[in-house]
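Continuing the batch. This is chain 6 of the set; chains 1 through 5 are on the previous pages. Same settings as before, nothing changed between runs. Recording input and output for traceability.
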Amino acid sequence: MDTGQRKRILLTGGTGMIGANLAHRLVADGHQLFLLIRESSNRVRLQSLEGWIQIFVADVLDAAAVRYAVQQAAPEVVYHLASTPFNPPTISARTHMQVIMMGTLNLLEALVGRPGVRVIYIGSAAEYGSGSQLREDSPLLPGTILGAAKAAASILMQTYARLHQMETVVLRLFTPYGRWEHPRRLMPHTILSALDGRDVQISQGKQRRDYCYIDDVVDALILTGTQPVPPGTVLNICSGQGVPIRDVVELTLELMGNPVRALVGALPTRPDEIWEMSGDITAAREVLGWEPRTGLENGLCKTIAWFTENRELVSRLT
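Output for chain 6:
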């Protein structure tokens, strides 16, 4: 995808944090953007793009609707971000597998026989399970059902590259953060709690996460649609460093002037907790020429500013 040339692009999962940030960038770059969105999805992140995008109301589990959207959009690039969320325990194993794996299968089947279409799938570090400096050839040992479903979908992407010569690419994201993030996630929850004068309750906070600011993530997505990438490629997108979540909470509060306390140990540890999570980004450097440009402190400052300035908008995120 030449960023200087207008392209027809199909995006699933565009109402989420990553998808919405990507959608805003693609529209700003002048591309013709089509979105596949469920009827029940909250579109608040996309409201300023009305008139600039075309929406197909459909579920990725509806194979006929997905096929229709692909036929109408006739995309040159597809970004497949539709997924179940990571944390809520109310989501069943069946739902994770159906949405992530079967939704991916429906999209790939709809794209068979369309040569030259780049298909970019958003995988997850959860596919690996726990580990530090994980490489793309590390064993897939997921400790969650979502991780297992993402791993299955990643394998499907690579299989369709081999069987049908499809230009599939998997980007395994570690922990993106920044504007539009759900208010219940760690960084927004910390920021909003501080703004409201509420102490921040966390677990012991020893689990490490590899944080990557959203603008860097979107840069990687754009490059993946732009650069020549061998079909079936898998790339880690992360900072390369694992940081304890306790440190993140304490740094966030420090940058805000320590208006409240971090109550470490106030919450129990999740039974399926992943303790170590960081990736090796050598392949992304070599294949895409990509590496993150935003350090954690700088990214946190930008995130704090955005959530502080958009309190009313954040209240409408679900």
